[in-house]
Amino acid sequence: MTKRLTAAVAATGAAASLLVVLPASSASAKPIVCERGHRSVQYTGTSKGWVVTHKDGLHIPKGGQGWVTEKVEKERALMASVTVTAGSKVKVGVLAKLEAEVGIELKGQGEWTTRKSREVKIKVTKPGRYVFYSGVKKASGVYRSRVCNNRGDGFRRWSSWGHAKSWDFERKGAVRCKDSYSRKSLEGKVKRTYC
Predict the structure, then answer these.
(1) Which of 72, 84, 91, 183 might form a disulfide with 56, Cβ 3.0–4.6 angstroms?
(2) Spatial separation of the C-alpha atoms in residues 24 and 165, rounded to whole Å
(3) Cα torsion for 80, 85, 91, 95, to the nearest 10°?
């Protein structure tokens, strides 16, 4: 009985000693929330929409149905880019974050849409005026960024602001101006703009 009591007292004393030697700061230490030096990018606004990069009109007469190949000339060119409007330069991760925000796969920085004429081949089944086209879906946004502090328990103040833009992939086709198309589609954009 005496040995058990002695052991219990010794154990209690050891536990008390452990409590005493714990540093006071450990109880109030902030949790690690980020990797030290990591730059976080946040978008304050994004948008996406269709852009016609090439186009050309063609009238198909009666009896002219069948496969038609038309050369479409460049209307405009787009380049995926990141610009800084204020603060320190930051480019890594900006377009990847934009891609996640808008939900479409985007081209990397510096990539251009085709800057020369293209050929569009379609099968025509009705006569009338057609607009042959090539186009992409463009995404853009305004971003800001900040860096994780040296302790990893929070971020510093926002230190960079800028604008980013990119595009997904080039598609081509033709619209018949008398036909109907969804206003949300590239075909609808082509008809409203060029028919």
Answers:
(1) 72
(2) 50
(3) -40
